[in-house]
Amino acid sequence: MAEYTLYCFAQSGNAYKAALMLNLCGADWTPRFVDFFNGETRTPEYRKNVNEMGEAPVLVHGDRKFSQSGVILDYLAERFGKFGWTNDEERREILRWTLFDNHKLTSYVATLRFLMTLAKTGETPVTEFLRQRATNSLKVVNARLGTHRFIIGDRPTIADFSLCGYLFWPDEFGVSWADYPQVGRWLDDIKALPGWVHPYTLMPGHPLPAGLTIAAPRPR
Ligand SMILES: N[C@@H](CCC(=O)N[C@@H](CS)C(=O)NCC(=O)O)C(=O)O
Predict the structure, then answer these.
(1) Is the CB of residue 102 below 6 angstroms from any atom belonging to ligand 1?
(2) By residue range, what is the domain housing residue 129?
């Protein structure tokens, strides 16, 4: 049995953040496929036994279980002594960019991509709003990467892995890195790290079964 188990699925950029870190650290890990598109995260069993928040990713390590990709990344950086901080100031910088990612980049990009590519809603006022917000955040990241090779400095950290979670599918949310050249350059630098694998290859569940219908989210 592998040392780490990651509840994940191929289309999840949030899960990819953790899967990428595990791979780059050379961890002994195995994916546990989450059948998100058939509603597994919404079942009472998943909420009771896996994650009360009803989300992937979840990392299991021995008798410890973690959710929230930022927490998982923090835990793995500490365990492996890789891609983390060397002092308190760096730790707070990593946290600052991870929080920015979760709130202002991933949340908008992931929802925009879900509506465009998976639920296939077409252009709506919602996608227009999300694109505006995502674009603003990509501009912030692009500007930062104009003065820093990686997001906090000259080496990759878990903050980079959080920010890049959804960015290896630019066509799925309709951006071109030609408009954000520093982001494109930085993604190439991440791709060059030993152990980098594209999310659709690294995690199970791609491609989606033909004929699967994905509804836009509704209140529940
Ligand atoms: N902030 C969370 C977000 C996790 C998240 O939204 N995961 C999605 C898959 S990418 C999910 O499981 N959503 C289930 C739902 O919202 O019903 C993290 O970084 O781990």
Answers:
(1) yes
(2) 88-191
Q: Which atom of ligand 1 is nearest to the CA of 67?
A: 20
Give pTM, 2 decimals: 0.98
The three-state secondary structure class of 165 is coil
Q: Tens-of-pLDDT digits for all 220 residues of the chain?
A: 999 999 999 999 999 999 999 999 999 999 999 999 999 999 999 999 999 999 999 999 999 999 999 999 999 999 999 999 999 999 999 999 999 999 999 999 999 999 999 999 999 999 999 999 999 999 999 999 999 999 999 999 999 999 999 999 999 999 999 999 999 999 999 999 999 999 999 999 999 999 888 887 665 5
Domain membership of residue 138 (yes or no) is yes
Q: How many domains does the chain have?
A: 2
55 lines ligand 1 (CB under 6 A): yes
Residue 200, in any domain of the structure:
no
Alpha helices by DSSP H, 81-195: 88-100, 107-113, 125-145, 158-163, 170-173, 181-191
Q: How far apart are CA 118 and CA 216, in angstroms?
A: 9
Same-domain check for residues 48 and 96: no
